[in-house]
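Hey team,

Filing this mostly as a record. A colleague (T.K.) asked me to run one chain through the structure pipeline before their review meeting, and I want the input and output archived in the tracker in case anyone asks later how it was produced. No errors, nothing strange. Just documentation.

Input sequence:
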Amino acid sequence: MFRDRGARGPCAAGAIPALAHGSSSALRHRSDVGSTPKMAVDKVPQFGFTNSMARPRQLTDDEILDRVASGLSSPSWSLNEAARLAGVHAATLIKRFGSRQGVLTALSRRWVENLPDGPTGQGGLVELLAWVAQVATTPEDRGSAVAGIAMLMEDLKDAELSRLLAMGWGKQATYLAVLVAQARKARDLQRAPAPEVAAQLLLDVQLGATVRAAAHASPRASVDRHALLLALIEGWR
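Output structure:
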């Protein structure tokens, strides 16, 4: 997807927040790297307890955002729907994030923060292939693919969300450029272009294939993002 707002893991590069995030985002899978600090908490109903027993477990803001991000399937979602996914009252979301826009902004900021800041030491090519494996899953049905793109369009219409998208994609490009540079130095990708150019090509193939797949009744059967990215990398060996 373009960005997975709930993505976690060193290669959580969803290209977009719900598609990846994000994302969104599809264009949003969403990493354990750079996880945001725990914030306010909310009580989770625990049936069967009495006042004399243990207090209900509490939800952190991160847990609420995880639940919201994993359940969003439509760009027209409401605060009530998000609250239902999170298992809290809509008033809780308003108290924590201020508004629907505040929830979107929190998801996007977390997506950016959770993207890897640098290589993990596995080796440039090994980590690059791991990135491909994580971000190259195409939605099975057209509805999910289109919904992800619609969420991306919503982000692009907003100045702050667009800024966060650009920041996240820039962070991914820097990360991928470092991996390509390492692979070139190790002579694993001797024919790769300049690392910065290679990184942009990888991201553009990923995002472009995601958009193109949404035009097909069976996106995954029509557009194989994984194969496209691997073919690009193979040509640099």
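Quick notes for T.K.: Residues 108 and 174 are 18 Å apart (CA to CA). The chain has one domain: 41-234.
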